[in-house]
Amino acid sequence: MTSEQFVGAIDQGTTGTRFMVFDHAGQVVANAYEKHEQIYPQPGWVEHDPVEIWENTKSVMTDALSEAGIDADQLAAIGVTNQRETTVLWDRDSGTPVHEALVWQDRRTTDRVEELQDAGMAGTIREKTGLEADAYFSATKAEWILENADPMKLEPAKQQSVRDRAEEGEVLFGTIDTWLIHKLTGNHITDVTNASRTMLYDIHDADWDDELLEEFGVPEACLPEVRPSSDDDYYGHTDPDGFLGAEVPVAGALGDQQAALFGQTCFDAGDAKNTYGTGSFFLMNTGEDAVESEHGLLTTVAFQRSGEPINYALEGSIFITGAAVEFLEDIGLIKSAAQTAELASRVDSTDGVYFVPALTGLGAPHWDGRARGTIVGMTRGTKKEHIVRATLEAIAYQTRDVAEAMEADSGIEMGSLRVDGGAVKNDFLCQLQADIIGSEIVRPEVDETTALGSAYAAGLAVGYWETVDELRDNWQIDREFESEMDPEDADRTYERWSEAVERSRGWARDE
C-alpha cells in the first residue's frame, strides 16, 4: 500500500515565508510560517536578506512536514510563489548574494525612472512589457545592484566588478522564485509570470528584450531560463541528500498575484480576484488577448501551462493596503490588526477624515512615485476610531479606483469579486468593500489562495490533478457580502476620496 500523496507550496511573501501542504481536495493539511526582517537603510529604501529568506524557507518546510507527520517523499511536487519584483543577484558558484534583495516597495530608483520618462522610453516599456515605467519593477533594481554592489563581498579571486562577472554568467539575476528554485534544484529558472514583472521581458514575443537589457545594462548571460508556470518537464528536483532527504519535483511557479488568480480558479476571460495583503492586487483574466490599458492598469501574464498559449491579465497594483494597518500598529494607534474592525465599528463614519496610504507612492491607476501618505479632514473631534475606519475605507476606495479602470479597459462589468489574503478575514472590511465598490464580494473557504495556486500549478504538472475542472470543484464559498449602502452615498464619499488622493500627489521632492 502506497502512502498518501500531497502537494507542497512555498509562499515567499513580503513579510514572511509560509509552507503549506494540500490534499487532493485542496484542503490544508500542514502549515508553517516565519517572518523575516524588513531592512530600511534610508527613507524609501526597503531590503530583505536573501540568505535569511532561504534559511526560513528550509525551516518552515521541515516544521510543517514534521508537525503534520508527513514525510517529504509523500510530496508529489512542490510549487513556488513569491513576492514578485523583489530582486536578487548572487554568485553562481558560492550562492552568496552580492547585495541585499531590493524589495518591490523600494523607491531608490525613482530618479532613474523619471530619466526614462523624460527620454520618451515609457511608451516603449509599456508596449513591450505591459508595465508602467516605475521603480516598482525589477529592471532599475537590477541596474542599481550591478552598479552599486561591493565586489569585496565576493571571494578575493573574484573581485572584478559585479557587472563584469554578470556578463560572464558568474553572477546570476532573479526574482525570489528564481533564488529559491536555484537553492532547491541548482537550476537557474523563472516562470513566465515572474519574468513579465521584470520590465525586461517582452510579453508578446515571450522572450527577454535586447533593447531593454541594453538600456538597463543587464547582461543576458545572468538571466534565468523562462519556463511555463506549470511545467511538465519540471524545473528540477530537490537533493535527496539535502535538508528534505527526498527527491521531490519542483514543477510550478507563479508570482504571488497570479498564483492567487490560479488558486481562485479564475481560468476564464472575465474572471477577477483581489488579494488583500501588504498591498492589494486586483487581476482580471483576459484570456489569450493582452489587453492594452488606457486607464493606468498593467497588462501582465496570468499563467501558462505546458504546451498551451499564455493567458494574460489586466492588473491593478495597489502598493499599500494591509501595510497601512501595520503602520497604525507601528505608531501605536492600535495593538493588533484584529482590533481594527471593533474600533472602526464604534463610529458611524470617519467624520470626513480620509487617509491616503501612499507610504511608498501610489500605484495603479495613478502611478505617482512621489505621492506620500496623507490624512485630511481632521478636527479637534477626530478620534483614533475615525482614523482606523478611514484606513479600512482607504483599502476599499483604492480597490474601487482599480475596479473602475478595469471595467473601462475591458468593457466587462464586474458582477462579483473573489477576494483572498489575510485582511479578508475581517468581515467589517469585506462589507465595507461591497458597499464602496457596489458589487458582491465572495470569500472562499480556503483564503490562502496564493499558496494553493502554486500547489495547483505544480500538481497539474506531475498529474496529481488531471484537469482544471477538478480544481474548480474544490473551490468553495465561505461567505458572500452584498452591498448595503445607497449608491449615491457611496459615490459622494468616493468623490471626496479622489480629492484626498490629489492632495497626496507629488509630495516627495528632492530639496
UniProtKB/TrEMBL annotation:
Keywords: ATP-binding, Glycerol metabolism, Kinase, Nucleotide-binding, Transferase. ATP binds at T14, T15, T278, G322, G422. Residues 483-511 are annotated as: Disordered. Sn-glycerol 3-phosphate binds at T14, R84, E85, Y136, D256. One of its GO terms (cellular component) is cytosol. Gene3D superfamilies: 3.30.420.40. Its EC number is 2.7.1.30. Residues 8-263 form the Carbohydrate kinase FGGY N-terminal domain. Pathway: Polyol metabolism; glycerol degradation via glycerol kinase pathway; sn-glycerol 3-phosphate from glycerol: step 1/1. It catalyses: glycerol + ATP = sn-glycerol 3-phosphate + ADP + H(+). SUPFAM superfamilies: Actin-like ATPase domain (SSF53067). Residues 490-511 have a biased composition (Basic and acidic residues). Residues 273-461 form the Carbohydrate kinase FGGY C-terminal domain. One of its GO terms (biological process) is glycerol catabolic process. GO terms for molecular function: ATP binding; glycerol kinase activity. The keyword Lipoprotein does not apply. Glycerol binds at R84, E85, Y136, D256, Q257. ADP binds at T14, R18, T278, G322, G422, N426. InterPro entries: ATPase_NBD, Carb_kinase_FGGY, Carb_kinase_FGGY_CS, FGGY_C, FGGY_N, Glycerol_kin. Key enzyme in the regulation of glycerol uptake and metabolism. Catalyzes the phosphorylation of glycerol to yield sn-glycerol 3-phosphate. Belongs to the FGGY kinase family. NCBIfam families: glycerol_kin (TIGR01311), PRK00047.1 (NF000756). This is Glycerol kinase. It comes from Halalkalicoccus tibetensis.
